[in-house]
Amino acid sequence: MKLLTVAGPPSSGKTAVILKALGWLRDEGLKVGVVKFDCLASRDGDIFKAHGFPVITGTSANFCPDHYFITNIEDCAAWGAEQGLDLLVSESAGLCNRCAPHIQGFYAVCVLDNLAGVDTPRKIGPMLKTADLVIITKGDIVSQAEREVFAFRVRKVNARAHILFVNGITGQGSWEVSRLWKDAPEEAPLTGGRLRFSVPSSVCSYCFGEVNIGEAFQRGMVRKIRIQDAASAPN
Amino acid sequence: MESDLPLTDPACAEFLRTNHLPPPGGHATLEAYWHHLPWDQRENGAWTLEALRAELAACLDPSRKTKAPLVLQTLEIFHGRDKTGAPEAHDLCLLPGDVICIVGPTGSGKSRFLADIECLAQGDTPTGRTVRINGQPPVPELRFSVESKIVAQISQNMNFVMDLSVSEFLEMHAESRALASPQTALQRVLEAAVGMAGEPFGPETPLTQLSGGQSRALMIADAAFLSPKPVVLIDEIENAGVDRLRALELFVEKEKIVLLSTHDPLLALSGTRRLVIAGGAVRDVITPSAQERKACRELASIDKALGQLRERIRRGDRLDELERIIS
Asked: What is the pLDDT of residue B1?
């Protein structure tokens, strides 16, 4: 079984793109399924079910979704194998764009949308930088020139990836995506495998549910803005 | 031992700059450079030594450098199947400067036909069509990366969303093309766009304040002069307040292949050919007849007259004499 990680900001079109690309693969007789990681209750699981794809949904609730992903992906992959899937897509929305669910040896996909603005590629960390395929959505509502500039900016932070435009509504471009997914590397062992990039080490009192503001309540790793330096910095 | 990367290579320097990393300085190896980076700079940029090495190596890969855009001489589309599985009757060969109008009701297969060209189908899409570029099947890279895609698209639903002035935006697009004289190109786009739009606008106008017609005119001029794509796909530009015939002329002058999905009689008769799509296949290929050409010239003068009336309405004129002319 092939396992793919698909990551991207909330509402960038991940679910729509996955539905279209998996549709092509299913038409060819492949058994495909989805594991959807979300931080709050999501209806996306129902959408995949309605289209007849086997799906499990994991809700990270008060856990960081990326940490939650790492601690659960092995079990989810085992579920996929039990279902006899040829290809399992793991879909997760990052919260702060700091982390990435991408794993070494597994095909990694990042979904961004054209409406996010041309400076977005620079603001997104390893989720974009370590991806093998970058999918840019919502190109049908911005100009050709803006699409070209956006892709150029993505290329500046990831020189290696394939970049494709996909229309999540009509499915234009999703056929190309399905070809690349079909050629994704075969299963590698997950246990003992490595993430492409570390997720943050910081643990502060707010991670444990603290709601009070003030230095007296701040325990663990605390990072403060050096106001003097920040105010006098050139940018 | 892996040979070390030339950190001072312009491509590497540019990569470090865009990623907010310090210039290489005197470090002999990437490893030395890495060890001198402050930890929070590595952390904030989400870098590891291996990741940085891989990215820099990719920047230096000659196959990734900006290539000269493909010079398209012929675009051939070999027949596939219709919705019943019967073979399509027509093979097509499109040349630079061709304006091909695509006609047919919703659901007839127009979108699929255009998508086959967009993805350079190789008998592997539902229609079974095959596309060849300059007589050859395309290399896989042409199909799977936006930079090498050959089709630019303009549709009625597209808007500018960037919060920039016209000139800032055009500069940004020109920069992404690494043009020799961006200012000249910028000037040309602006002149052509203003020439097509009903109302003038300047380089300082914010993109988001352009009217529908001005936006469309700018998109068309930009696609003609600044986009490297040799094929332009236009979906319904009627009623946009743009000089449509001038727009077509512009693409023809720039030797683009234009695929126009339209039922506007003026545009449909202005094309070099009309493809009639029905039941998922190209059912007919019509070359405009002499009568159609003549009718087209008359339609053009009606269109021009309507444009002048629109201009007078805009100025606040009364059109009392119009009643006499029409009746």
From this structure: 38
